[in-house]
Amino acid sequence: MQDYSIGTPGKPWGAEEKAQWYDQQSVKRSVKEEVFDKLTHIIPDGFRLQQYGALPYDEERYPLYAVVPNSFDESKPSALVTGGVHGYETSGVQGALKFIQTQLAAYTVDFNIVVVPCVSPWGYETINRWNPLAIDPNRSFHADSPAPESQQLMHFIASLGMELSLHIDLHETTDTDNSEFRPALAARDGTTHDNWNIPDGFYTVANTPNPQLAFQQAVIDAVRNVTHIAPADGNGKIIGADVMSEGVICYDKKSLFLCGGMTDAKYVTTTEVYPDSDNATPENCNDAQVAAVCAALDFIK
């Protein structure tokens, strides 16, 4: 893997290198225009937009929003949809918004649903995996988390006091994982990360202790009507992990402090679309995320 432009190979970053990295970041799109302004116009009846926090980097610019039911019915199962934990993964955010706009109302009869469409608004604007502290929010869902994105989301979900049956976390795998983010990670940590084959297509990441493969396969089967499913590589793996069934790999979400491990929901999955495919479009990727959320809800209905 190529050397990164910041730091000394084999030596973890200190405060100086992290500041140097931060100084290279810039706003590339508007989270206000592309996310927050949209949210004010798409909330269906029976739901409200709730601000559950704000990022300390700029609290006015980076509020944290969730779409929540006006009231919770304890007789119904509860589901959580999260997007934009990695802000650069566009369809995770835009797919969540499209689900709110087009499908959320249809599921209110059977579920209490909370949607958090953009967990990392600074990351969305700067097209970043990390936050300004060079911390990956999706490795930071634990007590005393140093990532305010993760910490505030955990506190918010805990404050709702609901028992979750389902958590679906919307992500992408992109070519920049190899060209930028894995080299940056290796430089930050003073380690070596080999390039991995970027899978061409959609896949899901199940939870190792409780994979619920029939549930994962239901999501895969629904999404295949929208976009293609990622094949295993020559070693029978996807991003270095064994393929458990078509388009499904497993991570131990709690031990890795992933967003998908922050609850004790029985049904948990992380979606991964591939926007850089020759056979994909932004709208196609958004539709794949919506199809995945709907299939997940339909499976446990």
TrEMBL record:
<dbReference type="GO" id="GO:0006508">
    <property type="term" value="P:proteolysis"/>
</dbReference>
<keyword id="KW-0378">Hydrolase</keyword>
<dbReference type="GO" id="GO:0008270">
    <property type="term" value="F:zinc ion binding"/>
</dbReference>
<protein>
    <submittedName>
        <fullName>Peptidase</fullName>
    </submittedName>
</protein>
<dbReference type="GO" id="GO:0004181">
    <property type="term" value="F:metallocarboxypeptidase activity"/>
</dbReference>
<dbReference type="Pfam" id="PF24827">
    <property type="entry name" value="AstE_AspA_cat"/>
</dbReference>
<keyword id="KW-0862">Zinc</keyword>
<comment type="similarity">
    <text>Belongs to the peptidase M14 family.</text>
</comment>
<dbReference type="InterPro" id="IPR000834">
    <property type="entry name" value="Peptidase_M14"/>
</dbReference>
<feature type="domain" description="Peptidase M14">
    <location>
        <begin position="23"/>
        <end position="301"/>
    </location>
</feature>
<keyword id="KW-0479">Metal-binding</keyword>
<dbReference type="GO" id="GO:0016788">
    <property type="term" value="F:hydrolase activity, acting on ester bonds"/>
</dbReference>
<dbReference type="InterPro" id="IPR055438">
    <property type="entry name" value="AstE_AspA_cat"/>
</dbReference>
